[in-house]
Amino acid sequence: MWRILVVDDDDNERELFAQILQGKAKCDLAKNGREAISAYNLSIREKKSYDLILLDIMLPDMSGIEVLDSIREKEKRVGVVKQRKIPVIMVTAKAEKDVVLEACRKGCNDYMIKPVDNHILLEKIEKTLKKKL
Ligand SMILES: [Mg+2]
Questions:
Q1: Which of 23, 28, 59, 70 is the most buried (most CB within 10 A)?
Q2: Separation of 116 CA from ligand 1 center, angstroms?
Q3: What is the helix (H) or strand (E) element at residue 54, kind and residue range?
Q4: Distance 9 CA to ligand 1 centre (A)
Q5: How many CA atoms lie within 13 A of 128 on its CB side?
Q6: Which residues face 61 on adjacent strands?
């Protein structure tokens, strides 16, 4: 079972992700950037790090890109090697090229456009986790 942190401010989207991943992953859910960062920090403190984060870009308190940035900064600070960095797949409602490019610069592993397709989501997760090994 994967351990995945799902970050999305939309209740329905969060539930949809959890449903798609049912039986494949144990999901923790976060509805804003603050919750996402504290879940991430807790996972590190408890040495139960996530296999992957699904990160919505449009969040109410901060953007998903800022969340990503803060995670990558922390990894850099504590000297996490490249292969140990947590895989992050960005999820965005619109295929805004600039936003996607920015996310890639900040170190996301992949991205996908909403509405989320079950098969594409699972494929992307598998591909991302395989690349990591
Ligand atoms: Mg959103």
A1: 59
A2: 13
A3: strand 52-56
A4: 5
A5: 25
A6: none
The two tokens of residue 85 are 């960095």
Residue with tokens 């989501």: 121
- The single-letter code of the amino acid at 28 is D
Give the distance (Å) from ligand 1 centre to CA of residue 86: 21
Domains and CATH numbers, the chain: 2-132 (3.40.50.2300)
Strand ranges of the sheet holding 25-30, from the earlier edge strand across to the other edge: 25-30, 2-7, 52-56, 88-92, 110-113
How confident is the model over 58-90, as pLDDT tens digits? 999 999 999 999 999 999 999 999 889 999 999
- The residue with tokens 């996607």 is 100
